[in-house]
Specification:
- The complex is a heterodimer of chains A (246) and B (326).
- With 246 residues, chain A is of the alpha/beta class.
- Chain A has one domain (3-228): 3-Layer(aba) Sandwich (Rossmann fold).
- Chain A has helices at 41-49, 73-79, 96-105, 113-119, 124-127, 138-152, 171-183, 195-198, 218-228; strands at residues 3-12, 15-25, 30-34, 55-63, 66-67, 81-84, 156-160, 187-191, 203-208, 211-216.
- In chain A, the strands form 2 sheets. In chain A, strands 6-7-8-3-9-10 form a 6-stranded mixed beta sheet, sandwiched between helices. Chain A has a 4-stranded antiparallel beta sheet with strand order 2-1-4-5, covered by helices on one side.
- In chain A, helix 4 packs across helix 6 and helix 6 packs parallel to helix 7 (171-183).
- Residues 236-246 of chain A have low confidence and may be disordered.
- With 326 residues, chain B is mostly beta strands.
- Chain B has one domain (4-297).
- In chain B, 13% of the residues lie in helices and 54% in strands.
- Chain B contains 5 helices and 19 strands.
- In chain B, the strands form 2 sheets. A 10-stranded mixed beta sheet of chain B has the order 2-1-5-7-9-11-13-15-17-19.
- The two termini of chain B are 38 Å apart.
- Residues 1-13 of chain B have low confidence and may be disordered.
- The chains are: A alpha/beta (246), B mainly beta (326).
- At the A-B interface, helix 2, strand 6 and helix 3 of A face helix 4 and helix 5 of B.
Chain lengths: 246, 326
């Protein structure tokens, strides 16, 4: 098993945001996470990456059998985990070429910057010397982010809504990139609202109220999501209303 | 003052002194070939001696030695576009001394020129470097001036660049001051510009303060003409026990004038100190001025993004600060 979350409880500023999360992601598997806004999908992503402020209060995170619960972000990254943010950071003075090279620095199998850009539909000649700052549009920045992950080619990619802010014509590049990760043996934890993007998944889980409600076949989980999930009052405030095994 | 280009050979070479200065110039990021290329306008000054000067067509350089430095007049003829950047090298190699450069730049109507200046003081223990510049960019002309400093690691320099600029109607002045290598000691940067109708002035300071450096940056733009535009930008990083103080000021007097103060100061460590004071004054009801200032530690999301690619927190902060000061 590549990633295994065991009975994970997580708090931010003393406030419980994830509870009793159990989740496994296999080698080369694309695993999508569904859920309405505020159910803890991004928090789950940040916890796996080990971001500051996401404190595991009980349970553990296993990566390829190793307990990484207390490792800092960069050590998780060097073991082969990375995260692409929903709203990627912008960097003044750092070119796309330099940004992708940084991603590739600790990667044995990463794609060259030119190829990584082509895979997300960006022409290298036009983009390599541009700066990863406000001069890139939201969609361009998202695609550069995905290219930087391709340049790293980690073992586990966490993609937090890689399709948000992407025009419909370019969605195909996103799904192709996700499939590329799997072809290279990487596992993908994919957070998305778009069924077209979610359709590339091998398995899906749906989250509500800070926990995993259901895991299984993507079509089946999507159907469950459509039938049962709605915006609710307990956003980011787990209570006893929801049965994890409903 | 005599015209340097007419009284000196193309390259005046006081041999060893010139070569030592060129070496220091290269250390500070300069391109040595530019100082030896007859097709490139250039000026090399060590202390109060002009070691090399080369004027090109349409560019006039006049120099005059003073007891503590050099007076320089730079004039570009109206309508002339100087194809290659003019390279300027100012420096002082001994550990102690004074260099005062008083310069007058007169960029003729419709002319276009860019300057790449390097100021190098690699051994400075007690050096005072004064740059007193008067700039006139005449109607519809464009001047780009980039100045990079290098001061060794001894923090022994007092640097006082002072600029007073007039940007006439439709003209453009882009001025960048950069001091990111070595440690300076004390920097007191003072830039003021007056911008006429549809003129543009963009001024930027990029400074990395280390050890016990004391940095004061004052950028002031007065937008007097209709549609005048101004940007006062500063990017400062301070570490160790360095201190920085940034004052960004824009006065919007002309109708529809637009100005923006953009200040980012990054502080690394608990002993460093940073402050920023933006000051906006509007004197016309159609003028519009804005400012943004961010002071504090390196942006957390930027750091975490790079850490998620395998960089340690320190490495990530270095990359972010280097980019900001590039």
């Amino acid at each position: 098993m590549r990633l295994c979350l065991e009975n994970l409880d997580v708090a931010v500023n003393g406030h419980a945001i994830l509870r009793s999360v159990n989740l496994t992601v296999r080698k080369g598997e694309i695993h999508s996470i569904l859920g309405v806004n505020g159910t803890g999908k991004s928090s789950l992503a940040y916890t796996i990456m080990g971001l500051e402020g996401y404190r595991v209060t009980s349970g553990r995170i296993l990566f390829e059998g190793e307990d990484i619960t207390s490792l800092p972000v960069w050590e998780r990254a060097r073991r082969g985990i990375t995260l692409a943010w929903q709203e990627p950071a912008r960097f003044e003075g750092l070119t796309v070429r330099q940004y992708l090279a940084l991603s590739r620095r600790s990667a044995a199998n990463g794609l060259p910057p030119e190829e990584a850009l082509l895979r997300v539909g960006l022409e290298p000649r036009r983009y390599l010397d541009r700066t990863v700052d406000q001069s890139l549009s939201g969609g361009e920045r998202k695609r550069v982010e995905l290219a930087s992950v391709l340049a790293m080619m980690p073992k586990l990619v966490i993609l937090d809504e890689p399709d948000s802010g992407i025009d419909a014509l370019s969605i195909g590049f996103i799904t192709d990139a996700i499939r590329t990760f799997a072809r290279f043996g990487a596992s993908v934890l994919l957070i998305t609202h778009q069924e077209e993007v979610a359709s590339v998944a091998d398995r899906s889980s749906t989250m509500c109220n800070g926990t995993i409600l259901k895991t299984g076949d993507p079509a089946e989980v999507a159907r469950f999501f459509r039938l049962h999930c709605r915006a609710c009052d307990h956003v980011n405030e787990p209570d006893e209303e929801v049965s994890p095994n409903a | 003052m005599p015209d340097t280009a007419s009284v000196l050979p193309k390259v005046v070479d006081f041999s060893r002194e010139f070569e030592l200065l060129v070496k220091a110039y290269e250390q500070s990021g300069g391109v040595p070939e530019a100082l030896r290329d007859n097709r490139v306008g250039s000026l090399a000054v060590h202390g109060n001696r002009v070691l090399g000067a080369n004027a090109v067509e349409g560019l006039h350089l006049h120099t005059e030695q003073t007891p503590t430095g050099v007076r320089v007049e730079v004039r570009v003829e109206p309508g002339v576009r100087i194809a290659r950047p003019v390279h300027l090298c100012f420096g002082l190699l001994p550990e102690e001394g004074i260099q005062e450069i008083h310069s007058v730049f007169d960029i003729g109507e419709g002319a276009e020129v860019s300057f790449i200046a390097h100021c190098t003081f690699p051994n400075a223990l007690r050096v005072q470097h004064v740059m007193d510049a008067s700039i006139t960019v005449r109607r519809a002309a464009k001047m780009v001036y980039q100045e990079t400093h290098y001061h060794g690691e001894q923090s022994g320099t007092l640097v006082m660049p002072k600029t007073r600029a007039v940007v006439e109607a439709g003209a453009v002045l882009q001025n960048e001051f950069k001091l990111v290598k070595g440690t300076v000691g004390k920097l007191d940067l003072d830039f003021e510009a007056q911008v006429a109708e549809k003129g543009v002035c963009e001024v930027a300071a990029k400074v990395y303060g280390k050890k016990r450096d004391e940095i004061v940056v004052r950028e002031s733009l007065r937008l007097t003409g209709a549609g005048a535009r101004g940007l006062a930008k500063s990017r400062i990083a301070v570490t160790d026990a360095a201190r920085s103080e940034v004052l960004g000021e824009i006065v919007g007097e002309g109708p529809y004038s637009r100005g923006h103060v953009d200040c980012v100061e990054v502080i690394r460590g608990n002993e460093a100190f940073a402050s920023a004071v933006p000051r906006l004054i509007v004197r016309h009801d159609t003028a519009k001025l804005t400012h943004e200032a961010a002071i504090g530690s390196v942006d957390k999301k930027q750091v975490e993004t790079l850490m998620a690619r395998g960089l340690t927190e320190e490495e990530a902060a270095d990359v972010i600060v280097s980019g900001m000061l590039r």
